[in-house]
């Protein structure tokens, strides 16, 4: 290894595909650990505490984080580490590759017995994800993708919606932001069902279940990184300020985001920017 955190030489797509197999296996192990405390339609059996900003964390979040660290740190000893439930180590910024994960994305859903929560894991190289998995254990769904190899849901290929036009399209995201965005883009829209896991919302866009998705300000790398590569490999994209999202920066928070089929991104990105400017919104 010549530079800190660089893979050994080899085809990048092959490396990403090999990494994905490990990420998927780890996500499933993490999901099994979380299911021990999940109660469908009922409150979790896990203990609950609150972090700064009134964000909940359960003993299951922490248990999954430990399980993933045990598996992934040994599998990728050269990688930096960024997890919602681990104190951030600035040493990751010196690494060319990085593991980014959310042990339970959608903790409030998990706590209340809503099955729409996920284990999200991505591998980043030089600021962009090359492999990612969004695993929804309580739903039995695993979205996955690696660079140049396409995206899948439970092993079957997926693609973003093939939209001829936007009239009446379903959009997922904060309703105020979506309304302003649709006004600027000039289309009539319908709300998609609310999803507490942002990773699942974005993966659903990749699968064509939801044609368009927005995220308000202040999502973090761990909320979006795995879904980002799944979107890209499903002929869609995730944009922040009209550009691809970059990862492994000192600041892990993001401005509002747009997920859409690739051919619609050039038109829709300016509409989101205009909506934010006209309303003074960040969310």
Which residues sit in consecutive blocks of at least 5 with pLDDT less than 50?
1-5
Described by the principal axes of the CA atoms, the overall outline is globular
Biggest sheet: strands, sense, closure? 7 strands, mixed
- Please indicate the count of domains: 2
Oligomer: single chain
Full CATH superfamily name of the largest domain: Fructose-1,6-Bisphosphatase, subunit A, domain 1
Structural class: alpha+beta
Compute the number of strand runs.
17
Whole-number radius of gyration?
Answer: 18 Å
Second rung of CATH, namely the architecture of the largest domain? 2-Layer Sandwich
Describe the 3D structure:
- A hairpin with a 2-residue loop joins β8 (151-153) and β9 (156-158).
- α1 (12-35) runs antiparallel to α2 (59-75), α4 packs across α7 and α5 (198-206) packs parallel to α6.
- This protein folds into 2 domains: 12-158, Fructose-1,6-Bisphosphatase, subunit A, domain 1 (Fructose-1,6-Bisphosphatase, Chain A, domain 1), CATH 3.30.540.10; 169-279, 3-Layer(aba) Sandwich (D-Maltodextrin-Binding Protein, domain 2).
- The protein contains 7 helices and 17 strands.
- The termini are far apart.
- Strands 3-4-5-6-7-8-9 form a 7-stranded mixed β-sheet, sandwiched between helices. A 6-stranded mixed β-sheet has the order 11-10-12-17-14-15, sandwiched between helices. Strands 1-2 form a two-stranded antiparallel sheet.
- It has 283 residues and is α+β, with helices and mostly antiparallel strands.
